[in-house]
Recover the amino acids of this structure.
């Protein structure tokens, strides 16, 4: 069926239409040329026979007969006609058998069915002729065959047939070939796309390195597929991470409950077991809550809650909240806020982001260390900087820490959900801010808030 | 006896809540959908409503709106799925009602109900007193018997909140929301405990009877001792 499908294809239809229009145009053109030549030849013939009539009529009476036979004698192709008749209509000279009835002798050119002397009637050519009554009553008629126009029309017709038919066929073939080619490419793309839909994410569309539109389109689609493959793989990775992080506390809770069921002898023991199990389940729920929160922030496109936020106040508040916690861990939490700086954003979310950064810093800084908060002003931006004397974030971990659930190997056993920095990253992204992580030693994370563009 | 009307379509959850609340001495009525719930709310005049956000037939918030239109001011706790907390739900907290995200501990729900039933001490008072504890809201000073207590601003706010609700169980989530203005769960889970530890250290001096009590796994209560 594929072989015949090209007839229905658009390319082929277009090619046929163009070929048809082209053919009509050529036929009209040739017809026009034919008509033009025809009328030109007739006009020329009319002029010539008029001139000859004038010439012979001007001769003296006795020399006309000779002039007519001279005139006819020079005509090797037999296209010239002439006749001289007396006032009674009898032929005096020439090759025109007789003066036809109704022939006007007023010197105007008219078509005439010519009968040649000595030839039977029938098949007489239609000629252009002019006649005039001379002084003395004689009638002179001069004519010329215009059969050449028919020859020309047949030549034109042949040229048309020889040129147009092959051209028309050629364009049909070209159209068929183009549409077959396009069809084959579409079919190939179709098959590959079907494979992609079926789940083979490594499949790509065919394209050459040319600037051809089809290739460029394929290259664009391939770029999109690369991006999607990366995203889907990342998502699958997150799915695994979630499953793993959820399984750990749930397994612990299950084991605890199982052991408790077999071994607990008193209400107190049973309660202890239940508390432990609830703890495990709470941890799993905390992971789910954090994940949902992350999705909520990532999906929220609204900036309805945005306003001018006093960053210095947020920083002070965060310090206020975390001071006792740092102190309990033997960490010095200091803040260097000597300027009042505002940014455009959501107060609660920015509080959450900065609290998370400080929370992280305190968590990963060993006892006796120092965590400091700074509020600075860049050229066209406000910067919140959190530094600590902890292990810092190494170069190759910088991308990874912003990923969901990433927890550095060094700190695997530190309690936490592992979503803190992802949350910060999501909040920062929502605000159009930037997060810069500086290499160690010591941790240094900057939250860069570019000034709002007032338009 | 306090009458509670629970409008919740999930039978399992409802059963747990009903069992727990009746054990604590509440008189509890249960409706499984919004329309029944609205009928029962109109006929039985409960003291407090516990309403699920998503209900078959009639949305939880629509039930509340219908009641408010009838000039029924019964306080409401809305139970909402985590992903479904939007501005309308958040708005409940400022309107005297409250919301709770699923899943929640039953203790948390009871604490919220208690908090709604017992309106805090009149806010026009300038001095709060609980047992030997005295808080001067104008001078910003605190005293236990004759002993002056130095408090940081945040500690003062925490103590004020607790004194207005003395004898009530205050959960960590409630304290985070009301005292620290947290709209999220902090990564450091013992945040409230650390702050409470410091406050307790200042309130309950050595040899003095304990006033701030830790309720295991749930929260804290400030009680006039004896």
């Amino acid at each position: 069926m594929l072989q015949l499908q090209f007839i229905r294809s658009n390319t082929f239809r277009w090619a046929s239409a163009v070929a048809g229009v082209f053919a009509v145009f050529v036929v009209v053109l040739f017809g026009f040329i034919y008509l033009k030549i025809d009328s030109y030849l007739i006009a020329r013939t009319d002029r010539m026979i008029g001139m000859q009539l004038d010439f012979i009529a001007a001769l003296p009476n006795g020399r006309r007969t000779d002039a007519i036979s001279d005139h006819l004698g020079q005509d090797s192709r037999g296209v010239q006609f002439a006749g001289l008749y007396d006032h009674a209509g009898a032929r005096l000279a020439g090759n025109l058998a007789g003066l036809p009835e109704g022939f006007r002798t007023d010197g105007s050119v008219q078509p005439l069915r010519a009968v040649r002397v000595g030839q039977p009637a029938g098949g007489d050519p239609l000629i252009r002729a002019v006649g005039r009554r001379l002084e003395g009553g004689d009638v002179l008629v001069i004519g010329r065959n215009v059969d050449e126009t028919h020859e020309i029309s047949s030549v034109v017709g042949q040229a048309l047939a020889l040129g147009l038919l092959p051209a028309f066929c050629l364009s049909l073939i070209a159209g068929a070939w183009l549409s077959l080619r396009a069809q084959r490419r579409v079919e190939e793309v179709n098959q590959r796309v079907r494979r992609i839909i079926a789940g083979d994410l490594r499949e790509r569309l065919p394209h050459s390195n040319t600037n051809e539109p089809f290739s460029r389109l394929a290259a664009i689609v391939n770029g999109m597929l690369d991006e999607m493959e990366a995203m889907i793989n990342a998502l699958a990775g997150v799915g695994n991470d979630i499953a793993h992080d959820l399984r750990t506390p749930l397994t612990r809770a299950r084991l605890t409950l199982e052991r408790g069921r077999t071994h607990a002898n008193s209400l107190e023991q049973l309660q202890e077991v239940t508390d432990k199990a609830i703890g495990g389940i709470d941890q799993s729920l905390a992971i789910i809550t954090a994940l949902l929160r992350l999705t909520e922030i990532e999906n929220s496109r609204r900036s309805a809650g945005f306003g001018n936020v006093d960053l210095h106040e947020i920083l002070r508040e965060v310090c206020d909240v975390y001071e006792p916690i740092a102190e309990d861990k033997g960490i010095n939490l200091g803040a260097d806020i000597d300027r009042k700086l505002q940014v455009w954003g959501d107060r609660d979310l920015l509080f959450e982001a900065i609290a998370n950064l400080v929370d992280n810093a305190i968590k990963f800084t060993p006892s006796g260390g120092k965590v400091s908060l700074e509020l600075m002003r860049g050229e066209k931006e406000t910067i919140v900087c959190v530094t600590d004397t902890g292990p810092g974030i190494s170069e190759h971990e910088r991308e990874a820490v912003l990923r969901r659930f990433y927890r550095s190997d060094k700190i695997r056993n530190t309690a936490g959900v592992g979503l803190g920095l992802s949350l910060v990253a999501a909040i920062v992204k929502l605000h159009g801010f930037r997060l810069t992580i500086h290499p160690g030693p010591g941790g240094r994370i900057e939250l860069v808030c570019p000034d709002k563009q007032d338009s | 006896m306090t009458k509670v009307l629970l409008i919740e379509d999930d039978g399992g959850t409802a059963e747990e809540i009903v069992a727990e609340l009746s054990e604590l001495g509440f008189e509890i009525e249960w409706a499984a959908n919004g329309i029944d719930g609205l009928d029962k709310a109109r006929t039985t005049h409960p003291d407090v409503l516990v309403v699920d956000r998503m209900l078959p037939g009639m949305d939880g918030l629509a039930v509340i709106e219908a009641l408010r239109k009838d000039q029924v001011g019964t306080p409401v706790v809305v139970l909402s799925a985590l992903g479904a907390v939007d501005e309308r739900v958040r708005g409940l907290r400022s309107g005297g009602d409250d919301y709770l995200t699923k899943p929640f501990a039953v203790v948390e729900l009871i604490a919220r109900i208690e908090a709604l039933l017992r309106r805090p001490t009149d806010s026009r008072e300038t001095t709060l007193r609980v047992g030997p504890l005295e808080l001067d809201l104008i001078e910003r000073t605190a005293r236990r018997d004759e002993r002056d207590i130095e408090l940081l601003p945040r500690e003062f706010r925490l103590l004020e909140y607790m004194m207005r609700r003395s004898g009530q169980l205050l959960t960590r989530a409630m304290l985070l929301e009301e005292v620290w203005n947290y709209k999220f769960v902090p990564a450091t889970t013992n945040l409230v405990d650390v702050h409470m530890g410091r406050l307790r250290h200042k309130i309950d001096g050595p040899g003095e009877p304990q006033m701030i009590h830790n309720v295991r796994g749930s929260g804290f209560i400030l009680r006039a001792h004896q």
About this structure: Helices of chain B lie at 11-23, 34-44, 60-69, 87-94, 106-117, 153-164, 172-178, 191-203. Chain B touches chain A at residues 82-83, 101, 103, 152-154, 180-181, 183-191, 194-195, 197-198, 217 (CB under 8 Å).
